[in-house]
Amino acid sequence: MSGAEPHANSTSTGPLRRLGDEIAALLREDPRRVVVGEDVADGGLLGLTRACRDDEALAARLLGAPLTPAATVLHAAGLAMAGRRPLVILPSATALLEGLAGLRELARLSGSAGGERSGAVVIIAPTGPGFGLGGDGAASPEELLTALPGLRVVSLGDVRESVALLRAVADFDAGEQPTLLLLPRSLMVAEVKQGSFAGSLGRSLGEARFARHGQQATVYAWGATVELALAAAEASGLDVSVIDIGGLSPLDVDTLTAAACTGKLVIAHPGERSPIAAEVAALLADRAILHLDAPIRRVGGAAGPLAYTEEGRALPSVDALVAAIREVVNY
Amino acid sequence: MNMEQSPWDPEDVEIDLDHEGGLSADAEVLLPALEPRALYKRLVAARLLDHRLSRLGLPMWAPSAGEESVSVAVAMLLGQGEWVYPGNRDLAIAPILGMDLDELARQVLGLADAHGPALYNGRAGAVAATDLGVAHVPESLGSHLAMAAGQAQAYKLDHHERASVALFGEGVTTSGLFHETVAMAVSGDLPLVMICKTQLWPEGAPAEAGLLGDSVGERMRACGLWTRRVDGADFFGVYRALQQGFARAREGRGPAFVEVVVTPLYNPDVPAHRDPVERLRRYLDRAGHWTPAVEEALEQELLGQLDRAFDYARGQAS
Hints:
- The structure holds 2 protein chains of 2 kinds.
- By secondary structure, chain A is of the alpha/beta class.
- Chain A contains 13 helices and 12 strands.
- Chain A folds into 2 domains: about 15-190, Thiamin diphosphate (ThDP)-binding fold, Pyr/PP domains (Rossmann fold), CATH 3.40.50.970; about 210-330, Rossmann fold, CATH 3.40.50.920.
- Chain A starts with 14 loop residues before the first helix and ends with a helix.
- Chain B has 11 helices and 5 strands.
- Chain B has helices spanning about 25-30, 35-55, 70-75, 95, 100-110, 145-155, 175-190, 215-220, 235-250, 275-285, 290-315; strands at about 85, 165-170, 190-200, 225-230, 255-260.
- Chain B has a 5-stranded parallel β-sheet, with helices on both faces.
- In chain B, helix 2 crosses helix 3 (about 70-75) and helix 6 runs parallel beside helix 7 (about 175-190).
- The longest helix of chain B is centred in the last third of the chain and has 25 residues, at about 290-315.
- The interface of A and B includes residues 75, 80, 101, 111 and 113 of A.
């Protein structure tokens, strides 16, 4: 596992600091909540449990775990089955590939033994490039993790929603189910203006969101690619919608389908190949066939592993996205 | 006392019930709280359940004849609010704890009926009971150990004087999740009782046995765990070691690891004293509490109950 703490002690408007305050608030509100993970008793690799650590009443609920990728997740499963509400904080979403056996079993709980025991576990993990780590620290393992039945996967697409999204996830707004909250690293190092964090999502957990409204084409994106899609829409000079897919599993089929009314569709995704983008493309080809006026274009980044100096290539470039938008619009 | 060692008898273990059914002074103390005739009935019931299920043709079925002491002792020691995370050879725990045999048959057979849909309990033939504290049996190796550790963590956080229990075979002890769970239990000083069933291999162990050294208990002691190694054919030895393990965990003295040496009974060369049921029968016989007629009546009663339950479950299936 790898991890780093960007901009330690950065300004109070850094999202990690705000998320840390929110985790402390979540623990204060519900005594069932505990935090599980490497180093969490000491503030955590991302600093997300510093506020908890500094509060004597909460520190006992920070459960430091050794380097046990599969057992950490299952430990949380056992805690949840015993009535606790664990938040697992991982240094990297790729740690879940090391602990896949545990994650798979956690995701299966609702389908096991009549589903009588809860798997109400939240896993919080940074994903994609942004900390300058390269390798696993630039990879986007959600492509594999969304294939697990029973696991809800949501991705943050707008840093201003980070606190509200964490709360919606931790409150199990969409039902008690193991939930993976992906925090794109590139958003975690962003500076956010005072007062611009949203208090609530204003929509259901997992619902897709229009980040930009337009009539000529629609770009679907999630996580770190949302900002790139917005930049490409702007740079294209065309009237383009950008949809933040948000809920990666399950997908918000209705909103994704409704947004296909432009008939010119582009999907932005991390990495070279994307099962999520393929699923969305197949879904739209099925549900929105009568709207389609061009082939659905998928635009990705480079296949990993990438050297830390080149980790940005994991995401699609704005230029490639602009080219794809123009291509479908002029098809 | 004539104690002829066979290659299936573990060395260097304390014996409470010897080959001929003689009881140690330490075990005598446990009587009459452990009523030997009731105990014998449980061991026989566990054996007959295994025989009955072996005839069902369940996929990947693992027979457990010879391992009854563990299931019976765990069921007797499990306290109110405590959870057991069984392996795939511990089916007898749930009915001994009081699971209705009709429900057991319904779950084992994987049937849907008016009581509900066909349940997925992990391994085919596994049963689970939330009300009794019996967890399902995950298919992925060692997963249940880590979940049991999480359960133990919850007890510790709540300051409950409870223990969480996980059962498994030595084969699992080469898996990553086993080692991860040991690390978790030791580092968190968790009230977790790990019970590992091992066997001796007079003709050499296959690679699948997971043997690393002479005793997994020895290995675990090196990891900082309190360990005991006992003979699975000796119910009282198993019971006393588990009792100590449970007591330690409940008192907040940390995790326990009990290695139980069992002997699969399908090998015709295995001597009769390796059978925990036979060994307790010898004790009862010496005490004048056993006759062939008593045995016959007991088996008829238990088999009748099982047959009725399985027939009923099949009749109710939708």
